[in-house]
Every structure is written in C-alpha cells, then in structure tokens.
Amino acid sequence: MQTKTVFSVAAASALALGNSMATLVAYFPLDGNFDDASGNGNNGTMFGGVTYGDGASAIGGGQAAIFDGAAGTYGAVNTGLNLSGKANFSVAMWVSGDGTVGSDDRVFSEGSSTNNNPLFNIGTHNQGADGTVDFYIRNGAAAQTLNHYHSPGTAFDGTWHHIAVVGGDDGLLDLYIDGVLDGTADYTMVPSFDGITDTTTIGGILRATDCCNFSGSIDDVSLWDSDLSPAQISALAGGAPATAVSAIPEPSAALLGLTGLLLAFRRRR
Predict the structure, then answer these.
(1) pTM (predicted TM-score)
(2) Which residues of 72-85 are buried (b: 16+ CB within 10 A; e: fewer)?
C-alpha cells in the first residue's frame, strides 16, 4: 500500500522552476458517482452492476467504483474523448482486482461504436495467468496490433495498486506501477488513433456492445492530454489528487541537470 508523498519546501520550489504543465482532461474521484471533477464537464455514466465502497487509503479513503464483472457492467465517459489519438496522453488510476480470477478484464479502453476493429485498452492478463498488466492495441490487421503485452510487474493481486500509462505518437507506451517505471511497450506498428475512437470506458470495453468486464475496484481515474512526468506520476501514486498534480510543472531539462535528476527524466519528448 502506498503512503502519501510529502513534498519539502525545497522540492516544491524546484518544481516551480519547470516550464510545462500537465493538461488534465478528466478526473473521476468515483466518490459515489462518475462525475468529472476537473471542471471540463466530461462526466460519465455507470451501467450494470456498479456499486461504491471503500476507496484506496493512499488517497484519503473516500469511495471507489466496484465492478461485478458481469456483461453490461462498465462506466462510459459521455463525451467519448479519443484520448489515444492525441499526440501525447496519460491515463492514471488506482486498481484492486485479482488477475487470476478472470481473464482479459479491461480497466480502461477506447474503441469505436461503429467499427469493432480499433481498440486501445489496459487490463488484466488475457489468459488469467497472473496479476500482470496487459496492453492490447489494434488499429488494422494482425500486423498492425500490439498483441497482449504483459508487464514485468504485478498490479492485479487483490490489493490496491496505482497504475499510470504514458503514450503518444512516438508509439511507445510507458507503464508505471505504484509510481515506478515498470516497462515500455512498442506499438509503432499500429496506425494513429486520431479521430478513430469515439468511446472511452473504465471497467470494460465498449464498441457496438460491451465486453471484457472487470471484476474489482477502480478509484481516482485521471486522463491527461499530455505526458505526465515521473515526478507527477509519483505524486499521484503517493496520494495526491489529480487537480493538485496538474499544477505541478514538469521539470525542465536544465533544472534536472542542476539537481542531478537528468537520468530519471522521461526519454520520450
């Protein structure tokens, strides 16, 4: 279980010298509803057997959405964000579920309501073999598919873990588990999703119909139209709400060099 991150005055001052800000698209605390707390109006609707119970203690308790894993149970963002089609994007959330109980259960997905082919999704191991995180990304034929990348680390072991995924048009998808970089998936073979997806869901996949419904809990979902930095991801995993993290500048390369953190800086962009 993660503990809250405490920032010193010096660290906060250093972060304030950065030169770019994370752009928060939607933030779902999931405290009894699927409302967007970012101020952007990207509210969602829960379908099927979704209830609310105890949330992740690292983010101050509250509530979390509990999904029963049955067909028809998922949460859909009303606006359909096409997040995966952006030049840069990030997805972060707390999850609690057992990857060996079911298989191929999705915690985040984007797809099309008119075409079953394009899919961008994150979830449990497609065979239910273990508690790893599984990426499946497709936009075309078999050769244009990242076919079930499995993470080195474990996030679905029946306890709360924080996962964050950072991707974009370079075709590399970085996975962080509990604030630590766990692995990078290469999906450069997949054509751009720009303008392709019109459904955005948590706890399942929604195309013309739904599938791959998650059995477990999801809390504090945040969606970003930018790369989150390692420092911002660490803050989320330490218990900071997304609305606070969006105000943390991403450190500049110059600042990182001065503070000896350059090796930890994201290689991507």
Answers:
(1) 0.85
(2) ebbbbbebbbbbbb
Q: Are 220 and 93 in contact (CB under 8 A)?
A: yes
Nearest to 152 by CA among 125, 188, 172: 125
The answer for residues whose C-beta is within 8 angstroms of residue 108's C-beta and 6 or more apart is: 91, 93, 121, 122, 123, 165, 201, 202, 221
CB 162 within 8 A of CB 178: yes
Cα gap 143→86, rounded to integer Å: 22
User: Is residue 235 within 8 Å of 245, Cβ to Cβ?
Assistant: yes
- Interatomic CA distance for residues 150 and 73, integer angstroms: 24
- Cα(186)–Cα(163) distance, rounded to whole angstroms? 18
Q: What domains can be seen in the chain, in order of their start residue?
A: 23-264 (2.60.120.200)
Considering the chain, what percentage of its residues have pLDDT values greater than 90?
78
Residue 102: the pLDDT is: 87
The secondary structure of 27-92 as a DSSP string is EE--SSS----SSS---EEEESSEEEEE--GGGTS-EEEEEE--TT-EEEETT---GGGSSEEEEE
Determine contact, residues 182/175, Cβ cutoff 8 Å.
yes
**Would residue 30 be called left, alpha or beta, if left means φ above 0 and alpha means ψ between -120 and 50 degrees?**
left
Yes or no: say if 55 and 30 are a contact pair by the CB < 8 Å rule.
yes
Q: Which structure tokens are listed for 221?
A: 């979902």
CB 88 within 8 A of CB 168: yes
